[in-house]
Specification:
- The mean pLDDT is about 85.
- With about 220 residues, this protein is an alpha/beta fold.
- The protein has 7 helices and 7 strands, in the order αββαβααβαβαββα.
- The chain is about 40% helix and about 15% strand.
- It has helices at about 5-25, 50-60, 70-75, 80-85, 95-110, 135-140, 180-205; strands at about 30, 40-45, 65-70, 90, 110-115, 145-150, 165.
- The chain has a 7-stranded mixed sheet with strand order 1-7-6-2-5-3-4, sandwiched between helices.
- α1 (about 5-25) packs across α4 (about 80-85).
- It has one domain: Glycerol-3-phosphate (1)-acyltransferase, CATH 3.40.1130.10.
- It starts with a helix and ends in an 11-residue tail after the last helix.
- The protein is globular and about 45 Å long.
Amino acid sequence: MSRAPGEVAWWTSTYYLKPIARIATRARGYGLERIPLTGGCVLAINHIHWIDIPVVGAVTPRRLNFVSKVEALRFPGFGRYIAWYGTIGIRRGESDRDAVRQMRTAARNGAALAIFVEGTRQLSGRPGAAQPGAAMVAIQEDVPVIPVAVYGTENWRVGKPCSIAVGEPVRYEGLPKGGRGYKEATADIERRILTLFDWLADVHRRGRPKGLTPPL
């Protein structure tokens, strides 16, 4: 029986790409049980290196719909694959109403959106200022935000250990659906990611012991 393109992409990722990513990055996750296995949600993630995407995808327990720059979807061959996987392309630096509509629809329909909140990679090696996209989707669609920090990907090379820390899901249903609400939620998301990132830095200094629970 033939498979739909999305099923093929998911099957390929699960059985081939995830194991390769785990080996190449020695990926380890803390607090993964905080990611809901069903229902719409937004994973709000910091972004330092392109390898962040495979690291997060390798250790998370459910399929993620990544939000990526639209140029990635135009890359020959690879672009079609990640489109099948459910990646949503967004035009950076401008208002992209179609991408926002797709993000809201995905969350409303029960998908787990993975959004790199700064909008671009941070060359400083630390999380930067978060943009309001993740907060906006979460508030508009009344779904939880799961803050995620990625650490160890700066100056990545094959075999260098990388980790993610997952914070507690948080809802912003008490905030208004507008600029003020988005700004307040975004500041909170940024604070949570930075706290998780600094926690991971300490975990790496201690040799990445297993079984730890991230703060928040």
